Amino acid sequence: MTETRPTLLVVDDVETNIDVLLEALGEDYTIRVATNGTAALNSVKKALPDLILLDIIMPGMDGFEVCRHLKDDPATRGIPIIFISALNEDADEARGLELGAVDYITKPFNPAIVKIRVRNHLELKRHRDHLEALVAERTRDLAEAHNRKTESLGRMAGAIAHHFNNQLGVVIGNLELAMMELSPGMAPPARITAAMKASNKAAEMSGLMLTYLGLSFDKHEPLGLSETCRQGLPMLQTIKSVKVVLETDFPYPGPTIHANANQILQILSNLITNAWEAVGESRDTIHLSVKTVSAANIPAGHRFPLGWQPQNNAYACLEVTDSGCGIEEKEIENIFDPFFSSKFTGRGMGLAVVLGIVRAHDGTVTVESEPGNGSIFRVFFPISGEGILRQPDKLGNDGDILINTVSPTEMAGNGTVLLVEDEEMVRNMAAFMLTRLGFSVLEAEDGVEAVAIFKQRQDEIRFVLCDLTMPRMNGWETLTALRKLAPDIPVILASGYDKAHVMSGDHSELPQVFLGKPYKLKGLSDAISQALADRK
Predict the structure, then answer these.
(1) Cα separation values, 448 from 139, 274, 477, 496, Å
(2) Domain 7-139 identical in fold to domain 416-533
(3) 62-114 pLDDT tens trace
(4) Contact between residue 153 and residue 320 where contact means Cβ atoms under 8 Å apart
(5) String of b and e for 294-315 (b: at least 16 CB within 10 Å)?
(6) Fold for the domain defined by 7-139
(7) Which helix (H) or strand (E) holds 417?
(8) What is the C-alpha separation between 51 and 7, in angstroms, rounded?
């Protein structure tokens, strides 16, 4: 079996130069010829050569510009380029090498020397490609092992979150009902208030773990990154020290990305908090900027998640720079782990959540840091070609986006509800809430029992509140079975899993409302109002 001969692309507008190179190299290599820069780029697009011999002075696009285009493109940046030029100044040679060329030969040239240099650079490329292949194989292996571990952790975390949120629902529900039973105008005891605050924090932590593992499937849409960051400034100002100045650079209109606004602002909040902790109480400046960068300019070192490689030519970059304490080299690999502890940074879930959100957006985050000289965190998102649908709503002081905020309303319920829940304490809590709202409650421990009860008392049941994860018959199966008996029966599907995760996929029947656990009395009341709205 004969080996394929390497292909060289000769780019020169002088015919005699081309002829000399053809004579010197044609016996050992397949030669393609381009007589100007545009033709050279078109030739490379059609088929990648193994090496390019490139003249500098040509009509239209010169050789320097051709080289710049090739090195900016991930698909062509690895092609060795040898400049062959009449320009004999050190500055010209330095410029060519800075642009990424592997060699610079001045005219008039010795064909034998050119032949040796071409052979040597092709041999170096062969060794480099082999080494890169070995490294790459060792890396997509490490990445695959990491992904398997992440998937396993994800399944475990999802199950834990489900059970955790069920139990929190019991705690939060009882605390809320205890406060409602106080005399009018009486403030709740400090212990109850503290317990409610801690329970809400625990529910939040459960959600953050799912976000870190990429299991929070929030809706993505086209967003202007600059404008999204600009609208988050009031929130960012509240989380930093008054001594720290926040400098921003948001180009208008700026790059458009396909993302979730809440999560972008969560990234901002966590990175600014991290920078502020690194700076401490000294008078200093944190720089926050948005820019567009080519894939070639994304730093290769300390890139997370492990094994990430650019799939686009251009990326939007969100950059946070501080001049604080910096991070030890050995610690950088660990700062995105949940609850990683160091003296100043990475104390909780902040950076872990950043990585989870970046992973969900098919992006990457890079870190440059040196102890005593500060840090640069850069988050890269693929550029979107879609038009911007809307900008995020304005922020409240707590950093949450305020969307469709309504004042609480009292609900005077009536009629009968079928409650389907396999965990006794959760079922008792939900039944008590439903009774408090004015409903009579029929309880079922699972879907099989629910269908049996529904067949007997279908005419009096106004709606169904059904858990998702149950033995024998789960929530989706129960919903389908009930709809076969009564196609228009309103159903609220409740789960401790994330809504988007639960609702993803194809289902023959859908609930009127999804209700996330743990829920409070108002959340349940609102869900019931929404479920019954179509029947009024």
Answers:
(1) 49, 50, 9, 21
(2) yes
(3) 999 999 999 888 889 889 999 998 888 888 899 999 999 999 999 888 899 99
(4) no
(5) bbeebeeeebbbebbebeeebb
(6) Rossmann fold (3.40.50)
(7) strand 416-420
(8) 7
